[in-house]
């Protein structure tokens, strides 16, 4: 699934994305997330013990909303699923994201040993 | 449930909120939404035939994310449920929201006869 060309900028820019997941009790959750496009997947940094990680182990569904900060009525919705999880024990991907988001001196987080990279497969991309 | 006082401004400001809901197939959905605080509930304008309305009829869970546009690392998460639905057949609440969001000449929408007001009961409010 490709990103519509006229909304590619929303993926390229370091925006705070709103990630929707479903809790084990089938209630909705939305969290602000750093992200980057890696190949044709969206990648997030996370730890392997937080609630969202457990949510995704039970229900892999992910929905991502990217709103243009310069025009709140222009946005991109990505729907998909958690496709894979990679360990990031040095926090290298966390550092990559930190730098993407403007923290030039980003250091690995204290919880680096528990860091993972969550990859979201994009099944549907809709720009408005 | 009250809003933490030091995050009240995020509810008072006309921000585009990210509303998370759960689809009938238990997948996640996130949509950008106008909102207002009415009493101690969050109110949205919607139509009675869109997908999100059907989602909420099956699973009333709602999660709302409000991110400070001036500081993407400051945000408020509201969790709760659809508490009630009111008809808005003249689109009056839609007009109210439009004006709140800066459209001084907001007119009722063409689909006014199908407009409803969705009320979200806030069960948990967490500021970061």
Q: SS-based structural class of chain A?
A: alpha+beta
Mean pLDDT of chain A: 94
**Assembly type of the shown chains?**
homodimer
Radius of gyration of chain A: 14 Å
Helix content of chain A: 10-25%
The backbone outline of chain A, from C-alpha atoms, is globular
- What is the beta-strand fraction of chain A? over 45%
Number of helices of chain A: 3
* Order of the strands making up the biggest sheet of chain A: 2-1-5-6-7-4-3
Total strands of chain A: the figure is 7
* Termini separation of chain A: 17 Å
Short description:
With 128 residues, chain A is α+β, with helices and mostly antiparallel strands. Chain A is 17% helix and 47% strand.
Describe the structure.
- The structure is a homodimer of 128-residue chains.
- Chain A has a seven-stranded antiparallel β-sheet.
- Chain A starts with 7 loop residues before the first helix and ends with a strand.
- Chain A is globular and about 40 Å long.
- Chain A is built from three helices and seven strands.
- The first copy, chain A, is 17% helix and 47% strand.
- Chain A has helices spanning 8-12, 51-58, 92-100; strands at 17-22, 28-33, 36-38, 41-47, 61-68, 71-87, 115-127.
- The first copy, chain A, is of the alpha+beta class and 128 residues long.
- The relative contact order of chain A is 0.26.
- The model of chain A has no long low-confidence stretch (mean pLDDT 94).
- In chain A, a hairpin with a 2-residue loop joins strand 3 (36-38) and strand 4.
């Amino acid at each position: 699934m490709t990103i519509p060309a006229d909304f590619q900028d929303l993926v390229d820019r370091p925006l705070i994305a709103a990630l929707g997941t479903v809790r084990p009790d089938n209630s909705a959750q939305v969290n602000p997330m750093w992200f980057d496009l890696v190949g044709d997947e969206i990648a997030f940094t996370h730890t392997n013990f937080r609630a969202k990680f457990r949510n995704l182990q039970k229900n892999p569904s992910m929905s991502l909303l990217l709103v243009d900060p310069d025009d709140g009525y222009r946005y991109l919705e990505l729907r998909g699923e958690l496709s894979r999880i990679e360990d990031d024990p040095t926090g290298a991907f966390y550092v990559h994201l930190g730098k993407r988001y403007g923290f030039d001196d980003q250091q690995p987080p204290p919880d680096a040993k528990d860091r993972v990279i969550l990859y979201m497969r994009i099944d549907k991309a809709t720009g408005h």
